[in-house]
Queue: 3 jobs
Job 1
Amino acid sequence: MTTMIVSHRSQQPSVAEINGFQGRLISADHADYDIARAVWNGAIDRRPRLIARCIGTADVIAAVRFARDNDMEIAIRGGGHN
């Protein structure tokens, strides 16, 4: 499961603040950012501040708490099926 988090704050909180997160965190300056944010519909061009690649329920909980605590909006993107 991939959780995409979009912030409207001017300051980016530190991803190190996501306590207990075991998955992969991808920010806009990461080399894999454009690949990670791509969706099948090429007309959609979203640029989230942070992409959290969750590997389990605990990661989803940590990412949602982090977003809530930092006044961020969340969009969920599932994958691996049609």
Job 2
Amino acid sequence: MAYKKRMSKREIEYWNRQREIRQSNFSDGEKNKEDLQGNIAIIIIVIVCLLCVFIGAICNPKTKVSGYYRSNGTYVEPYERKR
């Protein structure tokens, strides 16, 4: 069996400090990863919404404008621009 030297108080404090530093770095990395994933998800949702808006505008370029009724009951067609 290998002889294991008993660590001094200073060495124990040093290794405990190193362990704390490693654990805090790891947890910071995990947190940053989660934040990044959330940001990417939000960006993807925004892009999909914009795509839907543009596709809707391309597929249906003329939005229907309804006419109106005059007081005497006649229907007036909406004015449409000539293309």
Job 3
Amino acid sequence: MCAQILAHRRRKIHLPPHSTAFSPFSHSLLFPALPLAEATMTSIVDPALAPDDSGAAVSPEELRRLRRTISNRESARRCRLRKQRRLEELRELASVLRSQNRDHAGRLGGIARRCLLVRRDNDRLLAEASALGRRLVDLRRVLALPHLRLVAAPPPLAGECAYFIAGLTSSAAVVIGGSGDIPVLVALLGIDGS
């Protein structure tokens, strides 16, 4: 094989100036990693371009250099093929990741919309709970008012009952004038007496 490469290096390709076509022989010169069979080459190649078998001796150093060159070319070809395969794998992976990214972005948008709806509902429910809490306090005041009112005995004893109850609760109660002579006691717990 090395002798064949040496012979190819010594040959010159003679293409007509108007021809741009490659012959099998010129192909092997351009791409020595893909040699054609010798029988095919000798049958196709012009006899003028046939290798000269003058028996030129090849030095061991030249032979090692040629083997190293061939080995380097093969190694470079394998490296290019590996890189090409890796590039294709990375392109496929990038395509898959872009697709997954679009899916995730769509799901994230849906989740963000649902989160916004939940926040709005939460704000509405908090406002409603606050309003209901205020209403409950008002209702408790209204319901507690009859229990805090004490109706005194008939008019002759009204003054004595009011004095007695006022003495028991001291500053916690106030005698408010009611209808007629009946005094009404209301606890001073922040309740409007009206």
